[in-house]
Amino acid sequence: MSIISIIAFIVAAHSVIMILVLVVNPDWYVSKAISAGVTPNISAAITTKVIIAGVAFAVGIYSL
Asked: Average pLDDT by consecutive 10-residue portion of the chain (64 residues)?
C-alpha cells in the first residue's frame, strides 16, 4: 500500500465523517458558516464532501 493510497483513504474517511456530522448536527455547520461570514448552504457542503470522498476513494483504489 503506497503513501498516496493511504492519504487518499484518510481524506475519504474524513469526508464521510464530515458528511455524517453535517447530517446529524446541521446547527454546528450553520454556526461555523455564520461565524466565518458566509451564507450557510448545507446541501452544497454535503455535495462537495460526497465528491471529495468519491474522488479520494477512486484515487486510493487506483494507487493500490
From this structure: 93 96 94 94 95 96 92
